[in-house]
């Protein structure tokens, strides 16, 4: 059988924030979204990064297996958008599973049905990034429609895949209490959601936009205050009976 290949941007052996425990992070190359606050615009180009086989990546991850398992961790496939290379990511998940390593996929959920089906039922955990529950705002932030992400959310429930939701709070964009209420109420109907992570906007990737000669429109936007983050988390806690971080 031909080895399954794909393109990755990079690997990191000690991720602490992308799933439980310590994570071996695989940054896939290529993303069809153009989120205004993206901190990895260097992963956008489908043809960038380097070509690797799924097998060699999981062989590398296996070297850290004991250390990952001892921390309750595993591998997290992030990007870029992992669903953009569905066959490759499916192969990574199946090999990791065979090696006894916990798997997580960090995704925007923006992918056609076949790609979603090929990948997501094989993940032990999905970190689903929801930009907004307001369709026009979702489009403004990401450049794409909310439709695929909503379909992904429904399928993950149907397939009973554990989900952690991630939502970035950007002053002037996603800081309205009524929009947070709308998202919290929407998510309430999904018993497979285990946690919601409210993430403060930051500008750590701004220099990459400059290097790529891409216009960074959030130059003047400040990071949200602790109070704003607290208030948004409180809105979610009032509506959803799960950990809100
Ligand atoms: S989905 Fe992720 S990688 Fe793609 S543009 Fe948005 S933030 Fe960047």
TrEMBL record:
UniProt subcellular location: Cytoplasm
InterPro entries per record: Aldolase_TIM (IPR013785), Organic_radical-activating (IPR034457), Organic_radical_activase (IPR012839), PFL1_activating (IPR012838), Radical_activat_CS (IPR001989), rSAM (IPR007197), rSAM_sf (IPR058240)
Cellular compartments per GO CC: cytoplasm
All residue ranges annotated as the Radical SAM core domain in the record: 17-238
Keywords: 4Fe-4S, Cytoplasm, Iron, Iron-sulfur, Metal-binding, Oxidoreductase, Pyruvate, S-adenosyl-L-methionine
SUPFAM superfamilies xref list: Radical SAM enzymes
Protein purpose: Activation of pyruvate formate-lyase 1 under anaerobic conditions by generation of an organic free radical, using S-adenosylmethionine and reduced flavodoxin as cosubstrates to produce 5'-deoxy-adenosine. Activation of pyruvate formate-lyase under anaerobic conditions by generation of an organic free radical, using S-adenosylmethionine and reduced flavodoxin as cosubstrates to produce 5'-deoxy-adenosine.
Protein's name according to its UniProt entry: Pyruvate formate-lyase-activating enzyme
């Amino acid at each position: 059988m031909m080895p399954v290949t794909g393109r990755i941007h990079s690997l990191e052996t000690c991720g602490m924030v992308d799933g439980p425990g310590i994570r071996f992070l695989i940054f896939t190359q290529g993303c069809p979204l153009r989120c205004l606050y993206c901190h990895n615009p260097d992963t956008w180009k489908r043809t960038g990064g380097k070509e690797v086989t799924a097998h060699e990546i999981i062989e590398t991850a296996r070297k850290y297996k004991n250390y990952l398992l001892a921390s309750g961790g595993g591998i997290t496939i992030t990007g870029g958008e992992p669903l953009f290379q569905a066959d490759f990511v499916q192969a990574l998940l199946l090999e990791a599973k065979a090696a006894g390593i916990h798997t997580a996929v960090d995704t925007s959920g923006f992918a056609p049905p076949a790609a979603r089906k090929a990948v997501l039922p094989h993940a032990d955990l999905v970190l689903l990034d929801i930009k907004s529950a307001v369709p026009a705002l979702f489009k403004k932030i990401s450049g794409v429609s909310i439709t695929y992400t909503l379909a992904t959310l429904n399928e993950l429930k149907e397939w009973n895949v554990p989900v952690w939701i991630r939502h970035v709070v950007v002053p002037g964009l996603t800081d309205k209490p009524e929009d947070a209420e709308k998202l919290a109420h929407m998510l309430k109907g999904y018993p497979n959601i285990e946690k919601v992570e409210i993430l403060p906007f930051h500008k750590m990737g701004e220099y990459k936009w400059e290097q790529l000669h891409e216009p960074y429109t959030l130059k003047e936007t400040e990071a949200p205050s602790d109070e704003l983050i607290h208030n948004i988390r409180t809105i979610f806690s009032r509506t959803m009976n799960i950990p809100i971080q």
